[in-house]
Amino acid sequence: MINKHLFTAITLFFCSTLLCKSQAPAGYDLVWQEEFNEAPNTNGSLPLPGDKWWFETGGSGWGNNELQYYTDRTAGTDTVAKIKDGNLIITAFKRPKPYYGMDYVSARMNTVESWKYGYFEARIKVAAGRGTWSAFWMMPKNFAAWPLDGEIDIMEYVGYRPDVTQASIHTDLYNHKIGTEKTATKDIKNAETEFHVYGLEWTEDQITGYVDGVAYFTFKNDHLGDKRTWPFNAPFYLKLNLAIGGDWGGLQGVAEDIFPSKYEIDYVRVYQKKEVASIEKELRDEVPFTFNKENKSLSLHLKDGNITTLNIRDIQGRLYKTKSVEDDNASIDCSDLPRNGVYILTLKGNSTQENYKFIN
Question: pLDDT by residue (tens digit) across 185-217?
Fold first, then answer.
C-alpha cells in the first residue's frame, strides 16, 4: 500500500507540473526562460543584474503620478526583490520616513534581452489591496518617445478592482491619454491568492492576450505602414513591476493596512516560431561590439566604416563618454563607469544611428 503522505506528495507534484505547463500556441519553441530557481544571496535578494535582468530606479512618478521609489533590490533594511522557494517576490513597503522623497518603495525589473514577435507568458500571483498596481508588460528596446514607439501590456491588475485582469496596447493614435486606448478585461477567480498564467502572442499581423490559455484581447495590424498605429515591428523587452497609487492604481486611494504588499512570479518564458528564432539569433550574432566584464572594456567589430562617433549614457540619460571612431575594431576602456550599471551605447554615422544596451 502506498503511504498516504507519499501519495499526496506525488499528487501535488503532478498538479504542479500541469499548472506549470506552457500554454504557448502550436508551432512555438522555447527560446528564453527565467524559472527563478537560482540560489539567492545570503539576505535572500535577487542576484546582481547580469545576463537576464536589470533594475530601473527612481521616484519621479513614472508618467502616472505613482507614489513609490523604485530601488535596486533593497532600500535600507527592506528587500523589494528576492528569490524564495522558486519564485521572484517583488514587495512594496510603506516607509516610516520618506525614501528620496517618496512614501513607498518597490521594484521595476527589465530583461536585458529583447525580442520581435513571439509568445510571452508568466505564471503570476498579483498583489492585493487598494492602491496596488501589478504589471507584466513590454517596451521597445530602442525607446525614444512614448507613445509613438509603442507599449504592450500583457497583464495589468489594480487592487481596487479585485479579480479583473487587463491587457492593452498603446500607440501614438491609440492610448489612454487621449481616450483611444485599445484594451480588454477578463474576470478571473482568486487572482490575489492563486497563480494564473498570463500570456501574449505577438505576430506581424496581430497581438493577442491570454489568461490561463483563454484569448480575450486582440489588436490587429492595419498594415498601413504607419508607426502611429502599428509600431510593433521592432524588438521589445519584458518588464515586471509593482507600482503604488498613480493615476490608475490609486484611483480609489491607497489602503494603508496592506503593506508589505507582495507580487509573486513563478516563471517568465519566451517562445518563438522556428524561423523567427533563427532570424533573431542571426541578428544577435551581428551585434557590432562585445563587452568584457572582467577587464571592463568594450570592443567594436564594425563592418562598413560608416560609424564616426560613439556615445555611452546610463539609463537615466547621463552622458559618460563621447569618442570619435577611427578604427572599426577599436577598444574602449570602461573601467571608469559605475559598476552594475545599465548603459546605452549609441553608434552614429553620417546617415545612421544605432542604440545598444550593455551592463557593466
Answer: 999 999 999 999 999 999 999 999 999 999 999
Examine the residue annotation and report whether 151 is marked as an active-site residue of this protein: yes
Rounded CA separation 164/150 (Å): 24
The SS3 assignment for 68 reads strand
Instruction: For cell 500500500, name the residue.
Output: 1
**pLDDT at position 353, please?**
76
Integer Cα distance of 136 and 140 in angstroms: 14
Q: Which of 156, 201, 264, 280 is catalytic?
A: 156
**For this structure, is 35 an active site residue?**
no
Alpha-carbon torsion (100, 101, 104, 109), positive or negative: negative
**Of residues 265, 248, 263, 226, the one with CA closest to residue 85:** 265
β-strand pairing of 102-106 with 68-70: parallel
Give the separation between CA 36 and CA 271, rounded to whole angstroms.
17
Interatomic CA distance for residues 358 and 360, integer angstroms: 7
Given 113, 151, 201, 280, which residue is catalytic?
151
The burial of 268, by beta-carbon neighbours within 10 Å (0-12 exposed, 13-18 middle, 19 or more buried), is given as buried
What is each CA distance from 121 to 51, 128, 149, in whole angstroms?
19, 21, 22
Distant-in-sequence, close-in-space partners of 196: CB < 8 Å, separation ≥ 6: 123, 124, 125, 165, 188, 211, 212
Give the residue ranges of DSSP H helices in the chain: 4-19, 274-285
Direct distance between the N- and C-terminal alpha carbons of the chain, in angstroms, rounded to an integer: 58
